[in-house]
Specification:
With 269 residues, the chain is an alpha/beta fold. It folds into two domains: 167 residues, 3-Layer(aba) Sandwich (Rossmann fold), CATH 3.40.50; 78 residues, SIR2/SIRT2 'Small Domain', CATH 3.30.1600. Helix content is 35%, strand content 17%. It is built from ten helices and nine strands. The strands form two sheets. Strands 3-2-1-7-8-9 form a six-stranded parallel β-sheet, sandwiched between helices. A three-stranded antiparallel β-sheet has the order 5-4-6, with helices on one face. Helix 7 links the parallel strand 2 and strand 3. Helix 6 runs parallel beside helix 10. The protein starts with 8 loop residues before the first helix and ends in a 17-residue tail after the last helix. Bound molecules: 2'-O-acetyl adenosine-5-diphosphoribose. The site of 2'-O-acetyl adenosine-5-diphosphoribose has 26 residues, from helix 2 and strand 8. 2'-O-acetyl adenosine-5-diphosphoribose binds next to helix 2 and strand 8.
């Protein structure tokens, strides 16, 4: 098979030499599993855009509407499987000691693929939080019997344990992500439009701190011109090949695996 365009020896070498490798993912990594992206043409639900429903104001105005949307998304996600992009990322974790995964996705597919501790910046759709006491609970019931659901303990409304527009990210998750971005040698940015901050700032923080930053996306994004390389194509096709090549190169060089070589020099386009 022809190598995917853009996966040059130099790029493979830069990733191979990273002691600390961070992967940052967005909705595009799950799109080949059948999960709609937020800003794609399939992102609409009953004529609502995600930006209209994923807000505290929408929930206050009509919690049942917002929960119906989440119930729909939960049903959609319940039956999907991780795709080759998720599996390739899980292989990186098994092979590289200094590996971290940061995701904006709430679908839990990275965990299902075998990643042990993805940092979930935007929460998880399979958990709910009590609007009165803040208690977080797993909520796997699917479809939901009661919409909107209520807290079994105090009877208050439950909300999805996800981050909505205008809300801060969970501080522990953001601190972990920020620290990983600051200290990594390389970052792979997969399937994110890089439009929602602060997640979208992480590749720039990494770049600013000297990391080699590569994105994998079907389209160019606002960060494409600011980072080292853009691999244009489907994550499910590019990542398996990229990961094979990075890991093969690591095994072949006698260095004892990716992540053990010296910190790479950075380069600009
Ligand atoms: P978006 O829907 O904004 O962007 C998805 C990105 O994936 C786009 O850049 C697509 O070009 C790309 N893409 C689609 N299919 C792909 C494929 N097969 N392979 C590679 N790339 C592909 O999703 P996010 O960037 O994740 O936040 O959105 C960020 C946040 O905005 C979400 O987490 C969510 C949303 O509002 C909250 O809910 C707080």
């Amino acid at each position: 098979m022809e190598p995917a365009a853009g996966i040059t020896e130099r790029l493979v070498e830069r990733l191979r030499r990273a002691r600390r490798l961070v992967v940052l993912t967005g909705a595009g990594v799950s799109s080949e599993s059948g999960v709609p992206t937020f800003r794609g043409k399939d992102g609409l639900w009953e004529s609502y855009r995600a930006e209209e429903l994923a807000t505290g104001q929408a929930f206050e105005a009509d919690p049942a509407l917002v929960w119906r949307w989440y119930d729909y998304r939960r049903r959609l996600i319940a039956d999907v499987e991780p795709n080759p992009a998720h599996h390739a990322i899980a292989r990186l974790e098994s092979a590289i000691e200094g590996f971290s995964l940061i995701t904006q996705n709430v679908d839990g597919l990275h965990h299902q693929a075998g990643n042990s501790a993805p940092v979930e910046l935007h929460g998880n759709i399979w958990r709910a939080r009590c609007t009165r006491e803040g208690l977080v609970k797993e909520l796997r019931e699917n479809p939901l019997r009661e919409i909107p659901p209520h807290c079994p303990k105090c009877g208050a409304l439950l909300r999805p344990d996800v981050v909505w527009y205008g809300e801060p990210l969970p501080s522990h998750a953001y601190e972990q992500a920020d620290a990983a971005a600051r200290s990594c040698d390389a970052m792979l940015v997969v399937g994110t439009s890089a439009m929602v901050r602060p997640a979208a700032s992480l590749p720039l923080i990494a770049k600013h701190n000297g990391a080699f930053v590569v994105e994998v996306n079907i389209a160019l994004t606002p960060i494409s011109v600011l980072i080292d390389a853009s691999l244009t194509g489907r994550a499910g096709e590019i990542l398996p090949e990229l990961v094979d090549r990075v890991l093969e190169a690591s095994l072949g060089d006698g260095a004892g695996g990716a992540g053990r070589a010296e910190r790479a020099e950075t380069h600009n386009r």
